[in-house]
Amino acid sequence: MVRERGHLRQEDMALMTRLSQPFLSMLESGQRRLTNIDRIIVLLDGLDAPADLAGPMLLPQAAPTLPLQAVS
């Protein structure tokens, strides 16, 4: 739907999302499903999906903070 409403070719979407054109074709035809979280993130990132629509998976991961220790 995004591709058609944006008047994009599958090749255009492949360049934007770094997913192959044959893979996108299989997605559209229902031959494949998008279940791998890494590919979902690549697709959403390539489409510049807003984080509030895509969920927390597109938010940059903050480095874990370590508890501060007192120095004596």
Based on the model shown, name its key terms.
72 residues, mainly alpha, 5 helices, 49% helix, globular
Could you explain how this protein is built, in words?
This protein is mostly helical and 72 residues long. It has five helices and no strands. The protein is globular. The model has no long low-confidence stretch (mean pLDDT 80).
Strand content: under 5%
Name the shape in a single word.
globular
Structural class: mainly alpha
How many strands, what sense, and barrel or not for the largest sheet?
none
The DSSP helix count reads: 5
Give the radius of gyration.
Answer: 18 Å
**Quantity of strands, as a count:** 0
Uncertain ranges: none
How do the helices and strands follow one another from N- to C-terminus?
HHHHH
Q: For the residues shown, what is the average pLDDT? A: 80
Distance from first to last alpha carbon: 62 Å
Helix content: 40-55%
Short description:
By secondary structure, the protein is mainly alpha-helical. It contains 5 helices and no strands. It is globular.
List the helices and strands and how they pair.
Layout: H1 2-5, H2 10-17, H3 21-29, H4 37-46, H5 51-54
Helix pairs in contact: 2-4
